[in-house]
Structure prediction request, 252 residues.
Amino acid sequence: MAQSADERRSMVERARLAEEASRWDDMASHMRAVVTTGRDLSVEERNLFANAYKNYIGAKRASWRVISGIEQKIDSSSRRRDLSKEYRIKIEEELKSSCNDVLSLIQQHLMGTLDVENQIFYLKMQGDYYRYLAEFSKNATSDSVFDSAKVAYAQAYELAREKLSPAHPLRLGLVLNFSVFYFEILDSHDRACEMAREAVAAAGDDLSHLAEPARNDSSLIIQLMKDNVKIWSSEVDGRPPSHHHRTASRYH
Prediction:
């Protein structure tokens, strides 16, 4: 049965309330119901959908990093090492299921959009969620998630360069995450730094033409990329970085 306009508004309002309460699983469920109607999302709905799953899956990513760190520090002969590995695999299965759910929603219900900005947004999301899968698949050389992430990011990048201004926050957020993919997943450190530097330089003259709040969003992303380049360059040169190179969760 098709979802009525009132039902859709109700789901969106429920998602807003869940967001305020940091109930990311509920928020994701509500936005999933909105997405599966097959209708194009508004900018607000699009952002609610992205934020719901980013935070929902972000908690699992954080858990995976913690348990992986614990596992690496335990002696291989220890029973606790086996328990840690078992728990890590459980979290990985949850991550796979959640990421594949997002990717399926995008492919089946959202990629048919005719709006260019939406196309870039969803391609970027595809790149992000394939990257999340790649984070714990770096030793699985047969896994296709690496190529899938790179293809999605590259398509979004070309479209953004053609259709969006250099200082547009969506274009800059895309470059930020694409450069993180190059650095953290592909270990292409020079390419990551080069991409970030080029984006920062191109956005400089264009930033003053943006209205608020887009200008603030773009300024924040530019600063994140500058910080990344500084930290990544230190790591490549062998100097100890002042802090970890992961970027702010809002964009990363």
